[in-house]
Amino acid sequence: MNNIRKKVVTSGLILGLSFSAFTFSFMPNKVIADENKFTNINEDGYISQPSTDWGLYKQDKKVKGIFVTGHSYGHPTKYNELLDLANRTEINSMVIDVKDDGGMLSYKSDVPLAIEAGANEVVIMNDRDFFSKRMKEIIDNDIYPIARIVTFKDKVIGSARPDLAIKNKSGGVWRDNKGNAWLDPYNKDSWEYPIQLAEEAALMGFKEIQFDYVRFPTDGDRGNIDYGQAGKDKSKADAIKEFLDYARERLHDKGVVVSADVFGDIIAVKGDSTIGQQLELLGANTDILSPMVYPSHYGLGFYGVDYPDTKPYEIVNKAMDQAVERLDTIPKEERAKIRPWLQDFSAPWLKSAYGSNYITYGPEQVRAQIKATYDSGLEEWILWNAANRYTEGALEKE
Fold it and tell me: What three-state secondary structure class fits 313?
């Protein structure tokens, strides 16, 4: 991490809280603030923010990040391990779960639907003040905090509020092959919950909101889904585009930028995909686009590579070159920045298909992906490991 960084507070004003004034100085395409400290945590567990008039936060930081689950964030040993890793290496950002893919929240929320639907009954950290104290520590350590919010996959809200969920052809709540309900992206009423969680996360001190699962379902009996008239009148890609456009409008008012996670293979797919992720539409309606270009997730022969997981540099470089080329058609001032998710894990499920070609991942494979990203003209990346066990040998030292 850089030893000297400019801080800017990025949260808006919600829930009737009032804050003192703060002055921003503006430069083209970014907002820079004088050095400031997050000092007060109020009784609701929010970091007291020194402004009521938010300019859009665009820190001139080249993100080199890691994913952090709510459980890791709340665990004393694991949290300190990850914080120490960041302080020893080039890591300067953490993508922290606010809502995971099971619908579980990392802290008790004041969002009305979370309370109504029982999402607050089982949370990872009951003490929101504790969550905020850790947020202050992260910011004090010059780490850029990103809130990950799983968007439309939500068995908690989908079950409690069937009117917001994707329906089956019998009129009941449709569920995927793991029994998960999904919020209906065509239903604008379903947008409010993830957006309100995002606004609350901004007040908690996050500087960026990352929407994951911002798409339609991929698994399960999709032939039994009934989207009603909306599914006939509008494409899936337009529905997702409109959600992100609206979310960005709301969240820019809170001073935070918006990123979206997308499947890596949509880079090679033209037109509307079956899940609503179309590269150019997404690239024009987010601030940052994060394709999940894990080599293990590409089929045999993809990009002309027999065994994609064995060629991490080639896969990531080809994907990023193609993404850059496609997004170059969007005017620069409207174009999302590309920040890929990279693979920091081995894929044992490939052993049967790969045979003797199967490899495990270590420093060489992880660093190859980072190099591939740079060689495509990009400057940012995030590492994914579901267990938050990262390969320090792949990272440059601080």
Answer: helix
Contact 12, 19 (CB under 8 A): no
SS3 298: coil
Residue 56's pLDDT band (boundaries 50, 70, 90)?
low
Of the two residues 21 and 396, the one the predictor is more confident about is 396
pLDDT for res 60: 67
| CB contact burial 178-189 (16+ within 10 A = b; e otherwise) | eebbbbbbbbee
Residues 249-275 as b or e (16 or more Cβ within 10 Å = b): ebbbebbbbbbbbbbbbbbeeeeebeb
Neighbours of 310 (CB within 10 A): 17
Full-model pTM = 0.86
Mean pLDDT of the chain, nearest integer: 87
| Contact residues for 195 (Cβ-Cβ < 8 A; gap 6+) | 246, 247, 250, 251
What are the structural domains, with CATH classification, of the chain? Answer: 60-394 (3.20.20.80)
Length of the chain: 398
Q: What is the DSSP letter of 57?
A: P
Distance CA(74)–CA(72), nearest Å, equals 5
